[in-house]
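Project outcomes to date are best conveyed with an example. Our students and postdoctoral researchers have been running inverse folding experiments weekly, and each run begins with a structure described purely in tokens. The record below, which covers 244 residues, was selected by the lab manager from last quarter's runs and is presented without edits.
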């Protein structure tokens, strides 16, 4: 009888050890999966930012630098031959003005206006600029006047999310599209982006991977939550983060 009891105790201890081992392995695999997913998300974000910086650098190299070189050469030739009529001067002034506008556009893309001062104003600027290139879009904006500002790095992450999402929305021809953007702040700050269009399914299916990474990218860098909901022909992205 004693041997049977000892055997039962040993068996129970073995089962307990196996259960603990199984739980540990499950937690380990879960942490590993979460770590790998986090790496993929950060790599995706890094690739997007790197591509953007490369495009901006190429724009400066192929556009602004070439134009500035041409203006410099024209000025050198005019001064060397002591000839600079009014028409040439006006041409140079026009080229210089073009370069100034291009430089302003580049700096605005690298560091959006109002970002250091006000998140609502920065969001409004981005949306208004985007609407200029998408005039068929019906844009509705609801932004607060008073706002308790987050740290600059968090504001940049929030604006980066918006700047990445807008081109994804525009990647599909969206007839009769209405975009509603609302920013609010109570116990938590909240950015809601609601898109109503007839072919929302095409958008969600074609950009499924990018949208998933973008949501995770926001959650990591903005230290908040981001989820997407669809109801009929309307899809809503909701970003939440702790208010200051």
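After processing, the design step wrote out the following sequence:
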């Amino acid at each position: 009888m004693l041997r049977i009891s000892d055997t039962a105790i040993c068996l129970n201890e073995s089962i307990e050890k196996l259960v603990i081992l199984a739980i540990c392995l499950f937690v380990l695999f879960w942490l590993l999966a979460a770590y790998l997913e986090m790496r993929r998300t950060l790599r995706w974000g890094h690739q997007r930012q790197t591509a953007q910086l490369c495009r901006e650098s190429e724009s400066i190299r192929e556009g602004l630098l070439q134009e500035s070189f041409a203006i410099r050469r024209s000025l050198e030739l005019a001064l060397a031959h002591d000839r600079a009529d009014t028409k040439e001067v006006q041409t140079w002034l026009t080229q210089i003005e073009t370069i100034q506008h291009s430089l302003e556009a580049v700096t605005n893309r690298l560091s959006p206006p109002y970002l250091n001062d006000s998140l609502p104003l920065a969001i409004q600027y981005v949306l208004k600029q985007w609407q200029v290139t998408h005039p068929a879009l019906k844009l509705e904006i609801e932004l607060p006047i008073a706002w308790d500002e987050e740290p600059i790095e968090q504001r940049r992450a929030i604006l980066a999310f918006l700047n990445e999402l807008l081109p994804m929305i525009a990647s599909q021809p969206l007839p009769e599209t209405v975009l509603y953007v609302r920013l609010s702040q109570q116990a938590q700050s909240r950015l809601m982006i609601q898109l109503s269009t007839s072919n929302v399914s095409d958008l969600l299916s074609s950009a499924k991977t990018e949208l998933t990474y973008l949501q995770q990218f926001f959650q990591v860098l903005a230290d908040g939550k981001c989820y997407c909901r669809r109801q009929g022909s309307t899809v809503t992205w909701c970003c939440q983060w702790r208010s200051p």
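The first strand starts at residue 138 and ends at 142. Helices lie at 2-80, 86-110, 119-133, 152-170, 200-206, 208-221. The training component of this project remains on track.
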